[in-house]
Amino acid sequence: MVKLSKLTLLHVWLRLLLLQGSWNFERLQGGGWFYAMAPVLRVLYGEKEMQRIAREHVGYFNTHPYLAPTVVGAVIRMELERAAGKELEIGVPEFKEMVASPYAAVGDALFWGGLRPLAAGIALLLAAKGLAVAPVVFLLLFNALPLWFRIAGFLSAYELGIQSVEFLQRRKLPDLAIRAKEATVVLFGGVAAFMVFQLLDGKQKPLWLGLLAVPAVLLCGYLARRGISTLMLVLLSSGLILICSLFSADVAVWLP
Amino acid sequence: MISAELAIGAGVALVCGLDRIAALQIMVSRPIVAAPLVAWLLGDVAVGLEIGLMVELLWLARLPVGAAIPPDDTQVSIAGTVLAISLGNHLGQSGLEFQLLCLLIAIPFGKFGQFFDRFARQYNGRKVAQCDRLLEAGHFYAMEQAHRMGLCCFALAALGTYFVIICGGLVMIPILAPILQPSLSESAEWLRLALPLVGIAVILGTINVSRALTLFGASFGMAFLLMWLV
Predict the structure, then answer these.
(1) Which of A136, B29, B147, B203 is least surrounded, with the fewest CB atoms within 10 Å of its CB?
(2) Dihedral of the alpha carbons of A209, A211, A212, A214, in degrees to the nearest 10
(3) For B10-26, how does the pLDDT look when each residue is reduced to its tens digit (9 = 90+)?
(4) Nearest to A217 among B46, B191, B201 (CB)
(5) Half-sphere exposure at residue B194, Cβ-oriented, CA atoms within 13 angstroms
(6) Is A256 domain-assigned?
């Protein structure tokens, strides 16, 4: 079997960083998939053969960008086996179709729904204290896990081929996503409490007023769940605060 | 020089706009990073931190999944920061009230980001048939070039959104500043609190966690009481 050089693998991995460069509604990441696979196809096949094989690599594809290297690594292994004349257990398009959606669902829940709000919550606490390291902390906290999946997922999938599905199964990512989301909710409780306390303390207002923040947040959350857009909530809450401030200024004039 | 500052902002808008969807996705496009980054380049990190803090959570619950396009909080935070610093210097305005005014003007214009983004994706979609023809002709390098051109579409979409927000701000802020400044000075700190709380509320309303309200309420209550009593 042909062995790909480390340089070719690095080339593919770097191209995966541009996976969504030509994202479109027809084939989603399909163009990026071919772009990433092209260096491998070029090494394995002659021009005529590459044209035939490439048809399997230009179609619809969509998964989470951080888990895409795991799919690509496995497909490279499959291409190596096919180029060596081995019969594949499952076709390349079928394999892509089989894993793309589950990987997307797991990746969205873990990285977008769990890890990103968690890292943002910690960074916000630092930013609320006026610490300029907040963005750096966010980048370090958020990127450690995705970078690991991008590298380790790619390399282990390249070694394991279609067995690489077990690589992700072993990590129990859906459980991890739920834990991250729960931690996020708890963290946001602390962030909200800190910001409310900071304001009331600074303005020398009665601190019990801070407890009113909970029903206010719950009301906004309810409205969001009922389909009111974030923009509308921002405009409503800002407008309400501006009107209240105008009203309070007028009242203050008549007070002794 | 306001034009030089706008150009620096455009550079950051371009890089962060690409990070948002098309390239890398290391999250320099998040407001908590992008706003302090552009503010640091313009010489006032504190403004960027404030704006990043207020915008970060607003659309965090809108996941960039499949064909869903969230409002462009990246360009809102970058353009809001550029306006707060450069227009503030030009008009002799500063402080939280002016930052909030810039931000509240920039936020609705973030909707334009969705239009530009959708246009970029549709334009890339038109290249699909061309790529099929290139494949049949065996022009693989041209197919790769077409993919790279997609990056340019996203870059232009990011710049388009940035300039729409900047132009909107440059027109509206000098008019609205004298009108809204008095009430903003009264309410600035309340608004600074309200925006992140709205973001948290939206996340709580949409996050798929059982007993989310109990966890949030318990965590809020415990943290608040601890700070109150200690």
Answers:
(1) A136
(2) 160
(3) 999 999 999 999 999 99
(4) B201
(5) 21
(6) no
| DSSP, res A86 | P
Please report the pLDDT score of residue A252 as a whole number.
Answer: 56
Radius of gyration of chain A (CA): 25
User: Which residues, at least 6 apart from B209, have a Cβ–Cβ distance to it below 8 Å?
Assistant: A178, A181, A182, A185, B215
Any A CB within 8 A of B68 CB:
no
B48, B40 Cβ separation under 8 angstroms: yes
Q: Please state, rounded to an integer, the average pLDDT across all residues of chain B.
A: 94
Q: Collapse the DSSP code of A61 into the 3-class scheme (helix H, G, I; strand E, B; otherwise coil) and give the result.
A: strand
- Whose tokens are 């415990």? That residue is B222
Band (pLDDT 50/70/90 cuts) for residue A254 is low
| Residue A100 domain-assigned (yes or no) | yes
DSSP state of A211: G
Which of B55, B57, B13, B56 is CA-nearest to residue B37? B13
> Average pLDDT for residues B156-176, to the nearest whole number?
96
- Residue A235 belongs to some domain of the structure: no
Enter the pTM of the model: 0.94
Tally the domains of chain A: 1
ipTM of the complex: 0.95
Q: Which of A12, A22, A133, A184 to mutate to test the interface with B (most CBs of B within 10 A)?
A: A22
Using CA atoms, how far apart are residues B185 and B178, in angstroms rounded to an integer? Answer: 11
**CA B17, CA B30: separation in Å to the nearest integer?**
10
Is A170 a member of any domain?
Answer: yes
pLDDT digits (tens, 9 = 90+) for A201-239: 998 889 999 999 999 999 999 999 999 999 999 999 999
Residues 6 or more apart from A159 whose CB is under 8 A from it? A73, A77
8 Å CB contact between B56 and B30: yes
- Neighbour-count burial of B221, counting CB atoms closer than 10 A to its CB (0-12 exposed, 13-18 middle, 19+ buried): middle
The answer to whether B172 touches B105, Cβ cutoff 8 Å, is yes
Do the beta carbons of residue A72 and residue A40 sit within 8 Å? no
- Is the CB of A234 less than 8 angstroms away from the CB of B190? no
**pLDDT tens readout for residues B182-223:** 888 888 999 999 999 999 999 999 888 888 999 999 999 999
How many distinct helices (H) and strands (E) make up chain A?
11, 0
- Where in the sequence is the domain holding A211, given as residue range(s)? 6-225
Distance, in Å, from the CA atom of A220 to the CA atom of A145, rounded to the nearest integer, reads 32
CB contact under 8 A, A245 and B186: yes
List beta partners, residue A24.
Answer: A28
DSSP string, A139-150: HHHHHHHHHHHH
CA angle B194, B197, B198 (to 5 degrees): 85
- Residue B76 · residue B109 · CB < 8 Å: yes
B52 CB neighbours in chain A (<8 A) are 127, 134-135
Domain residue limits, chain B: 2-229
Whether A214 sits inside 8 A of B220 (CB atoms) is yes
